[in-house]
Amino acid sequence: MKAMIVSQYGENAQFEVRDVAKPQPGLGQVLIRIAASSVNTVDTMIRKMGKDLPLSPDTPAILGMDFAGTIEAVGANVEGFVVGEEVYGCAGGLADLPGALAEYIAADSKLIAHKPANLSMKEAAALPLVGITAYEGLMRAHITAGQKVLVHGGAGGVGHVAVQLAKHFGAVVYATGGGEKQMDLIESLGAKAINYKTESVEAYVGKHTDGAGFDLIFDSVGGANLINSFQAAALNGQIATTVSLCELDLTLAHFKGLSLHVVFMLLPMLHNHKREQHGEILKAIAQIVEAGKLKPVLDVHSYTLEAAGEAYARLESGQTMGKVVIEN
């Protein structure tokens, strides 16, 4: 099969087209002909940082985690999937799991689900990593109907899904963005947009919560921004974040009695730990999508498999709105 290979990591790491052996489905795996894949920030980090990240595969490597495609063969001990079905998932591109920048992937059947019927392959490929991340974070933070929920980075890959899922779960949703286009997207998704560049945390907490703070905050920006989340949270509030690779003063979190949930959705893949939970989440997300409550936003540009390097550069440019997708 044709695959895009990274032979060495680094700032100038290049993808090259190679013919490699087509995988065969092993125990518990299905062979999927990939129709589309999407690029996530963690993919670009692996390409640049290589073994500085403990989750990067050995080179030569096939990167890419998210995909949608059609099952072509089913391995032993697989239940619930048959040849010809359309599926989506996040199942490779790290550690010892070959990725999705190829014509085929042999994927653990626990990590996939049937593709939402009302999405194209491109749209479905955009959802797995960000969908699982947003869903897990909201669940762990105990989202309930009627809560005031703040999503930091509401126009981003994870954030725009978190906004829609929070709405689906019955919350009153607010989200931060940094410009007119981001604000417009947030509003179109049914949330109240907050321009973090022009409005202080104190100002928007006062304006939208009468100073009481938000019940739940999903912080897809994280890092230093977690201090803003601590400031914006209500007493005994819940915070879920996808980025906590930082040093923080937790004094404010202590005095407000906050709960912090760190979401690192790659754990099941890395450690073969409760992988079936990802399949279950993807199944739940498909039902939400088919009910018309969630739709991924795609960047205006799409790319062929051979142009994977351009797709990665597009995401790294910071100019994207929505997920960058590669079509086979």
Describe this structure in words.
This protein is α/β, with parallel strands linked by helices and 328 residues long. The chain folds into two domains: 2-127 and 274-327, Medium-chain alcohol dehydrogenases, catalytic domain (Quinone Oxidoreductase, Chain A, domain 1, Alpha-Beta Complex); 130-262, Rossmann fold (3-Layer(aba) Sandwich), CATH 3.40.50.720. Helix content is 30%, strand content 27%. The protein has eleven helices and 15 strands. The chain has helices at 41-49, 121-125, 128-140, 157-168, 180-188, 201-209, 226-232, 251-256, 267-271, 276-290, 308-316, and strands spanning 2-6, 15-19, 29-39, 66-74, 86-90, 104-108, 112-114, 148-152, 172-177, 192-195, 214-219, 233-241, 259-262, 298-304, 323-327. Strands 3, 4, 5, 6, 7, 14 and 15 form a seven-stranded mixed sheet that branches. Strands 10-9-8-11-12-13 form a six-stranded parallel sheet, sandwiched between helices. The longest helix is centred in the last third of the chain and has 15 residues, at 276-290. 49% of the residues are buried.
Order of helices and strands: EEEHEEEEHHEHEHEHEHEHEHHEHE
In total, the number of strands is 15
CATH fold annotation of the largest domain: Quinone Oxidoreductase, Chain A, domain 1
N-to-C span: 12 Å
Shape: globular
Mean pLDDT: 97
- Briefly, what CATH class of the largest domain? Alpha Beta
The CATH architecture of the largest domain can be named as Alpha-Beta Complex
Number of domains: 2
Query: How is the main sheet built?
Result: 7 strands, mixed
CATH superfamily membership of the largest domain: Medium-chain alcohol dehydrogenases, catalytic domain
